Amino acid sequence: MKDFLCGIRAEGLKMKHTFLLPVHILVPAAGSLLFLIYFRFSGWSGIGQTAGYMEIIGVALPFAVSIVCGGSVRLEEENHFQIFLGSPGSKWRALAVKLLVLGGMGFLAVFGAVVLFGAGYCFVLGREGISAEAYVMLAAVLFLGSLPLYLEHLFLNLAFSRTVSQCAGVAQFLLSALFLTGLGEGRWQFFPCTWSARGVMLALRSVYQGEGAGTGFWEAGKTVLICLLLVGLICAIIGIWFYHYEGRQCND
Fold first, then answer.
1. Residue 183 burial by CB count (10 A; 0-12/13-18/19+): exposed, middle or buried?
2. Across residues 27-36, what is the average pLDDT?
3. Is the pLDDT of residue 213 over 70?
């Protein structure tokens, strides 16, 4: 446990003078401010404004995760993965620490973006929005839906390069936006990059239309079960791959 905490501290020190820490503060603050200014003068309904903001966060998360994972792995490339793979203890600990730190910063960024928007919508714009509990639920859906993306993009950056990861992030961004339409019906559960955007859309529907609208989202636990099975499969595949991982050429 002590080694794990030391690894988290070391990861934080490595990121101290990079863009990774500021971007998790500035982007949520700037994004919520820009949307509040836009909604101040737009003709959207209250439902449309809240839903649009949350869905845009969900759609943008795959590409944002590809950027921050690329920046994190770039720190390991600078020393040719010697510290990352040569640190004492279990080999998986280095990957788990990096995943935990990036996920923790993502958690703060997502909740910050939602809370700032909710507070600004109510106290600055003076408009009636959803309850505080609903905002917390939406933030949780956005964050939990993004967790598999961190593992996927760490794999892409470690195995290939930042370019591959960012291209995948763009493709996931487009797929996530596309699956907000009817094309996503019955399919979105099998594509982790769509979980945040599609999940928050269905969660908002249950908030505005009552508990009965949530039955399509939960579908007697079928959706949750599919997502958990996919997460387990992704973890198993990447875990086995990482066991044999010995670094790559740092020529990106």
1. exposed
2. 93
3. no
